[in-house]
Amino acid sequence: MQRFTGLIGLAVILFVAWLLSKNRDKIRWSTIVWGVILQFALGGLVIAWPGGANALKKFSDGITGAIAYSDAGAEFVFGWLATPAVGGKIGAATGIDFSPFIFAFKVMPIVIFIASFFTILYYLGIMQRVVQVFAIVMTKLLKVSGAESLAVAANIFIGQTEAPIIIAPYIPKMTKSELLTMMTGGMAHISGAVLLAYAAMGIPANYLITASVMAAPATIVIAKLLRPEVEEPQTAGTVKVKIEHEQANVIEAAAAGASQGVSLAINICGMLIAFIALISLFNGLLGLAGPLFGFAEPGPGVDPATTLSLQWLFSKLLWPLAWVMGVPAADCSKVARLIGFKTVINEFVAYAEMSKIPMSEWTEKGRLIASFALCGFANFSSIGIQIGGIGGLAPSRKSDIARLGLWALLAGSLATFMSATIAGILKG
User: What is the pLDDT of residue 419?
Assistant: First the structure.
């Protein structure tokens, strides 16, 4: 029954994109059909097929093992604060309620390490070649331009402002359909650096990796439904990657990546402090108004579930969305709440909230769909990030990027929901 519900959800997502299309008569249905088939093929390979699932599990375990390498640097700088085992012993020995996992000292070093590592891969030209392989597949199967396929493929590995750099020379002359596809790719994916950060928070790495890969064809399907191509792309049928070395050698590349990682880590910490505090403030205000609507008044010993809060509002408003995606009824309120946090604030806050929910409170399918549905940068702040980042690469297109911002947010959200729904269908 849940699989049937997921099929309805997939149809609803595609119908919404078609309904809001700028030019339905120009939709290339072969692109849409092959995009959906490619998503099912990619997902089926690692979700429905036991051999593929086992292979991905081993691969994701290896990727997660990279976290241990970041520990060496973190422990040198922060000492026992970056060592959960030591922190746990201190708490046990002193009787102090001491958390063995300190976010800033455990997760942020991973972001810095992976940012440095990825910059080295780019300096060596390895990442560009991997991206090119993905782009060639999408260009041949889905009949999209080389520039947009490269941008979408790059988003599997890097963030929404870094990926467009690969195609920077083409952005000034990209069609609006290509622009939306590029922007949607940024919204529908997460970067490799934060992927490992989420894995360190307890989100299954195999789910995150699969979601990132499946989001590529989903991006093209949704973007081409919303804004079909009506012009002639400059890079139609071609996939070219230009490898440029901004650094003098590998050491400078590692240092440059570390600097970028530090900036990202500080931004993440600052954002989490601000937004989690604001959520608490907003919940406090809602809690005061709650008794007027029959809710309990917040206070010591009062069950938070009985008070009016942002979490409660999201869990009710977005419950139908979670259900139609195939989420088991027992998990719908949780998933709806997390999707609300992800869209209004960002996925980092949503995953932080998800990591607090005990495993015993999840069904396996509900946790899988939640992990997929949150795996993207589609939130309101990303609109500003893309206007600034992509607009800086092509100032002449900044106004077009601004006009497409809300469309990209919608498309990115639909793409991640589409991947989550298909993952749920394949899970059964």
Answer: 98
Task: Say if CB 412 and CB 379 are below 8 A apart.
Answer: no
d(CA 335, CA 338): 5
Give the pLDDT mean for 131-142: 91
d(CA 106, CA 117): 17
| Largest distance between two CA atoms of the chain | 70
Helical packing angle, 329-344 and 310-317, nearest 10°: 120
- Encode pLDDT of 360-399 as tens digits: 999 999 999 999 999 999 998 899 999 988 998 899 999 9
- pTM value is 0.88
Across 217-258, the runs of DSSP E, i.e. the strands, are none
Is it the case that residue 114 has pLDDT exceeding 80? yes
Contact 330, 315 (CB under 8 A): no
**Strand, helix or coil for residue 167:** helix
User: Does the pLDDT of residue 215 top 70, yes or no?
Assistant: yes
158 close to 111: Cβ distance less than 8 angstroms:
no
What is the per-residue pLDDT for 88? Answer: 57
Name the residue type at position 218: A
9 pLDDT more than 80: yes
Contacts of 16 (CB under 8 A, 6+ apart): 414
Distance CA 96, CA 373 (A): 37
Are residues 358 and 376 in contact, defined by beta-carbon separation less than 8 angstroms?
Answer: no
Per-residue model confidence as pLDDT tens digits over 322-362: 999 999 999 999 999 999 999 988 999 999 999 999 999 99
Dihedral over alpha carbons 392, 394, 398, 399 (to 10 degrees): 170
CA distances, 298 to each of 280, 284, 292 (Å): 12, 8, 13
Question: 355: closest CA among 198, 176, 224, 194?
Answer: 198
Confirm if 13 and 417 have CB atoms less than 8 A apart: yes
> In this model, does residue 150 exceed pLDDT 80?
yes
Look-up: residue for tokens 């040198």?
76
CA distance 249 to 148: 30
Q: Where do we find the tokens 């997902």?
A: 43
Beta-carbon neighbour count of residue 323 at 10 Å? 19
Reported as type and span, the H/E element at residue 370 is helix 364-373
Query: Taking the domains of the chain in order of start, what are their residue ranges?
Result: 2-65+107-427
Q: What are the two backbone dihedrals, phi and then psi, of residue 235, each rounded to the nearest 5 degrees?
A: -110, 30
Q: What is the pLDDT of residue 12?
A: 97
Residues 6+ positions from 96 with CB-CB distance below 8 Å: 90
